[in-house]
Amino acid sequence: MTPSTDRNLPLFERAKAVIPGGVNSPVRAFKAVGGTPRFIERAQGAYMWDANGQRFIDYIGSWGPMILGHGHPAVLEAVQKAALEGFSFGAPTEREVELAEAIIDLVPSIEMVRLVSSGTEAGMSAIRLARGATGRNKIVKFEGCYHGHADALLVKAGSGLATFGNATSAGVPAEVVQHTVVLEYNNVQQLEEAFALHGADIACVMIEPIAGNMNFVRASVPFVKRCRELCTQHGALFVFDEVMNGFRVALGGAQSVYARDIPGFEPDITVMGKVIGGGMPLAAFGGKRAVMEHMAPLGSVYQAGTLSGNPVATACGLATLREIRQPGFFEALSASTRTLVDGLVAAAAAEGVPFSADCEGGMFGFFLLPTLPQNYATVMQSDGARFNRLFHGLLDRGVYIAPALYEAGFVSAAHTPQDIAETISIARDVFKSLAN
Ligand SMILES: *Cc1c(COP(=O)(O)O)cnc(C)c1O
């Protein structure tokens, strides 16, 4: 691309004049990897095209929602029909009930669900619910897990268990995060100590079960089991943030994956988003009836939303869920994701690049590390400079992965075996250049 025909750079310059950093969500700015963000013009199936007309095989999928690929005909039809009927009413609709019923049908731990518009809103509301239902203030979260940008959740670990976390954003008063305890992911001993110290005050433990906001790190089975036991024992609620994992790693979400190893396993509250909106602003939180009945107007925990359960968004979500429930859908999606991951591992090995990777359902992650990390500190030992070369090498050759080494990747049902094979062969080229 000669400078005179490149449209991304001038668009980015225009954007920066009117939008902070030129983007409406920070990671889109390419700050970690450098270079100019691609302005996307359109997308279809597994591909996106930027303002220069360059085609990319898309492994971001809008950060998870586009599990069917872009522009799936059945979803498009449902959205077009809904749009003709009206954009928003501020009154109840049948599709909200249908979507709630579909979620409850797919996730056994959920008996009631409230629809909202973003994962942040769902996570924030889940915490208010946990506090309201238990009458306690403290919440436990884990380093490297992202639960949206509510004040109480923008916290990193303090210097010890007895100290409180520190806000990771300006504008968050220390008083607001003083009730948030931040622990190391997968560290059973720290978890036990935290409960020994604060057990009677803990409203909830919130976790990303397969953490996609530190690339791809699984909570170990013993860790999830111990979280569950300690919550039950101390009267705290266990909150699974499945905004990324839900309807993505398996039809029943990450909780169905853990239930294979922990018989009868269920969280108390589940936070959902991304796939349930199919690319529209839609998220949800749900749980057992006894917990959910604390929500207004039944109970005293207040939460509301002008666009909650939006009729066009629910049509998009319902059509998406209908497709992913088809027999064999997850088997096929898991198999393509596995083929990609195995291919990348083999390509890196052939070029002598230290590399490890993992996947579940249609979600994957890889590290420029010889073995898979178990917590945030280890994830951050990845070679950032090398990742940036890998990222730009792939991008220049038409493969679009997340522009940061601590973000997961997503395969859609629209990715064909040819797309996967092309990706692996491009990756091998890039690995070769990394090795030199
Ligand atoms: C994306 C994400 C959120 C936030 O959702 P938004 O819709 O971006 O507000 C919360 N939790 C997890 C695990 C996520 O991946």
From TrEMBL:
In the record, which positions carry N6-(pyridoxal phosphate)lysine?
Answer: K274
- What reaction does this enzyme carry out catalytically? (S)-4-amino-5-oxopentanoate = 5-aminolevulinate
What domain of life does the UniProt record list for this protein's source? Bacteria
What enzyme category does the UniProt record give? isomerase
Q: Which cofactor does it need?
A: pyridoxal 5'-phosphate
For this protein, the Enzyme Commission number is 5.4.3.8
Query: Which controlled-vocabulary keywords does the entry list?
Result: Cytoplasm, Isomerase, Porphyrin biosynthesis, Pyridoxal phosphate
Any Gene Ontology CC annotation: cytoplasm
Output one GO BP term.
protoporphyrinogen IX biosynthetic process
User: Which pathway is recorded for this entry?
Assistant: Porphyrin-containing compound metabolism; protoporphyrin-IX biosynthesis; 5-aminolevulinate from L-glutamyl-tRNA(Glu): step 2/2
What binding partners and quaternary form does the record give? Homodimer.
Q: What is this protein called?
A: Glutamate-1-semialdehyde 2,1-aminomutase
Q: Which organism is it from?
A: Simplicispira metamorpha
